[in-house]
Design brief:
Helix content is 76%, strand content 0%.
Length: 86
């Protein structure tokens, strides 16, 4: 099942914020900022991207359940998706 972009608004917003954060990390590196500060911000970007990935997977599953459809992805593929974000 294809999920419409409007159903992924929260994930898109999170990714846009992460994009801005990543730009900030790049600027921090270019400015020679402290390593610990850079890594802290980089970790925040990573968590934001991971949360967006989980939201995308959850939204797709929710749509399948709501439509009474069988998931378009089997258990093994779903497990691989989750593990790729872990």
């Amino acid at each position: 099942m294809d999920v419409q972009p409007q159903d992924l608004t929260a994930a898109l917003n999170r990714l846009r914020r992460a994009q801005g954060q990543l730009g900030g990390v790049i600027r921090m590196i270019e400015e020679g900022r402290d390593c610990a500060d850079v890594v802290t911000q980089l970790a925040a970007v990573s968590r934001a991207v991971d949360k967006a990935g989980f939201a995308i997977i959850a939204t797709n599953l929710q749509h399948c359940i709501a439509a009474g459809e069988e998931a378009s992805i089997d258990r093994e593929q779903l497990e691989k998706l989750f593990l790729s974000l872990a």
